[in-house]
Batch of 4 targets.
Target 1
Amino acid sequence: MKHQLNNIDIHIATGGRKFDPAGEVVIMLHGSGQNHLTWVLQSRYFAYRGFAVLAPDFPGHGLSGGSPLESIEAMAAWVIELMDSLDVKQAMLVGHSQGCLVTIEAAARYPKRVKRVALIAGAMAIPVSQELLDMSDKALAKAISAMINWGHGPMAHMHDNTQPGHSFIGYGQRLMALNDNDALRADLYACNAYTNGPDAAKSLTQPALCILAENDRMTPVKFGREMAKTLNHAEMTIIAGAGHMLPAEYPAEVNAALRSFFQPSQ
């Protein structure tokens, strides 16, 4: 759906269902250089199981207008502004990679607005090498190729797939190419500058789920384990053989873990 926020056209995937702010709201936050297509195999799954799904493109990403936001703190504030503009009182936040940083920051700053947090292939800090920062500024196509290469696990590089008929590598490259030319650079610099993750994580009182990838080369699993230990009320699951792009590579496993977490009594 299309939505206006701060006089900017924002695109939000709702999983093919009309959004109802009175429902059980799940907001899915994409990672660096990504967009709502990160969640194509999650948004519809949960929308058709009774959840009110919002998978927004951050400004300058995907089909959203405007300029990319330049800090994790600004992204967290933007999420709450989006909730306010849609009359959402409280939501469960799901973050992937950079989206984990945004989720942690938003949940710490606005605890009454965030019911639960799910953190996929994340960590409390995501430092970025100077080489990748430079590529994102001067050689965008090369930066995208590097991230797609590092972001996928062995299965994707062998051209195998849990979803027949799809190419993880090709899909990832196409997804990232849809964004504003400045989006990846802004995201990477925002991740590199963010230092509040450990303190924010320590302060969280919400139930948390960490879904980690065994073969993650972008946010190695040891840092995900540290994140899970730092959170006060965290569950952790590690998906064997998976790379950083978990929502696309292992959607069935991700969806099962999220559904159990969202509906703990069932």
Target 2
Amino acid sequence: MQAHINKTVSTCFFHLRRLRQIRRVLSKPLRQRLVSAFILSRIDYCNVLYAGLPSSSLAPLQRVMNAAARFVANIGPRDHITDVMYQLHWLPIGQRITYKLCTVMHSAAYNITPEYITDILLPVSDVTGRSHLRSASNGDYVIPRTRTSVGSRAFSVAGPTAWNNLPQSLRDIESTDTFKKHLKTFLFRSYYDVL
């Protein structure tokens, strides 16, 4: 994944350099819209594949997000970025990956996804001998055992892990749009309240 991440980071910084050339004529809302179109869309594209990567591998993507936030807020490279990210309501890269995993799992839980995704997921309630457990009534999914760290990055492991860690009240939301809204709020608060 390192080559893919490096290519994404390189492309994002290229677009940021181009946008900086016209920064003086852009308002803050327009800068934010351009960053969403040119930078964040590239970071979010297929970011489920980054699940389980070490933070050192994800650090370049976070640096891109920090640089984009500095561009939007028009602050210097040495200024603190946490407050800016909070004001922009942007999730850091780790939470963005969790957000995508959980939205795909929500679609699978409510039978909106294609069969090839639902075929690799197994609800606890479908396992004989475990259907009477509390995890079965909660809508948990079986997390397959893996022997390697690469195996734990597979969607069949990372997706159920992220889904099972969500609160029950969030998993019970059937509407996809409402679920996404509440999920982002949950991830946003869980990250920034810790800081």
Target 3
Amino acid sequence: MFKYKKIHTLPFKFEIPNYTREFLKKKSTTKSWIKYFKRYLYIFFKGQHSLEVFKISGEHLNILWINFSAPSLGDSLMDLSSRTLLFDKKVDLLTDKKNAHLYHSDLSFSSVFTDKKEVVNICYDLVIIDSYSTTSIKIKTDVAPLVPFVGLYGYFNGPEVNRVLFSFHQINSLLGYPYSESDINNKAKCSLSISTNDDELIKSLKLPTKFVAIVIGGEWEYRTYNNWDKVIEQLLLIDNNLKLILLGSENAKDSEKVILEKIPTLNLESYVAKFTFNQTAQIISQANLLLCCDGGLMHAANALDTKIIPLFARLQVELQLTISCKSFPLFDSIDVNNISVDDVILKYTEAANSDHNHLLF
């Protein structure tokens, strides 16, 4: 009856990059089993156990996707990336307010809701639940208590995985494997739609015809690069006519000040904390190249096919990117600030001179 292995075994037949072995070495088996058992019992006592199905069929035309487990914008983009495989379905999204704005002009989601009261009276054929956390199961029970459901992550919990590949392979599995392993690996990437209003707003900026964008700042110290000013100085030695645009959120303000005091305004424009995420993504879509650390705007760049030089720390590159990304990554096992300015410049030269769509890992 109890299948504890579901917490660390991939729920589809293909392999993807994951840290399951490392997770099992560090994690207490007893604690993991207790967490699984609690979730199993919660589903059972909520009357949902008999409603779990393991297939998205042709009869499932009207679907609600519940996504509250993604802790960041980037995670949300990755977890929901496989919605593009449901192109022949009407799919609504119920998600957290902090992530909903990403999808208001989405080409895959018919409607986006942030309040469960908004969907209570809508008839759905199927619910996709992000994970079997008590929060998600409670929401499902409240809005669609008698509707069958499938899990994206289901009971899987703990090991780090490539979230884009996990999402794509799991939906492919639930659809009955209409695509091969190589098909999925080649098409898997984030998606992001830009509204007409946002497009027009960014056009009004009259951005340079050619420019390099740099995302500065960051939420986590080990993923926040502190040497962008030095990188910019080296880039301008290579090409003193290079146009650069700074991007980022409020946490980039201190870095912005340092850079603006050192770099000639003739070469540099800053739009730090001036636009929404999607509007900033539209700027990125027009860049010839993006330099950044691991974060939400990196995933936006991948969605919009912008060539990127991403800096990673701790999580290996293969857990963050897919082969469809136009990426020239750099990695340090501890902190992105251990990546030298010279290495960034070498990678810039490689990317700038490359005609290849991607150079991953």
Target 4
Amino acid sequence: MVLHPAQKKIAEDKHRFRVVNCGRRFGKTTLSAAEILGFAVAYPNARVPYYAPTRDDARDIMWGMLQKAAGGAVVDRNESRLELTVRNRHGNTSLIPLYGWEAVQERGKGVGVKNNFIVLDEVAKYRNFMQGWQEILRPTLTDLRGHAMFISTPKGFNHFYDLFNLQGEDNDYKSFHYTSYDNPYIPVDEIEKAKKELTEDRFQQEY
């Protein structure tokens, strides 16, 4: 999986919690898949969950890409549970489950497990995010000193905005800001066309 320069800068960063504020078509799904597989392969018996706003989003956004990217490393796939089992470099396997945020918000899904790494996609769309993160998901990283990546297109001054500003308060956090222009594979003229069609505020938020 080839990453463009901006994606590489994020992937190479060693901070425990990375917050990525990016425009549409930046390549956040490709980056997320690469990071998920990197952790799953690097650690023995790892558990590396991915969250999207809904379960349908998780399936539509990440399920196919992960399988394609993992290739021959896939040992088992459970489509009904959206779980992928892959070989790691330690001779055993790692689990990659996909969830919708509602599993955390409504059912407290995730309590009692140990995670090596968590990717939370489109975080700005999550309802009651801080409660779910602080009470349910953050404790799952404690035993293994696990990492997390929060990635989203912004949506006003909400909880994602607060996350982005945590790097000024906590040395474990690092924030990144990239626009759609930072993806060299997206034609600039297409972005410029969108700029003409959208209101200035909408364009600034989305791209």
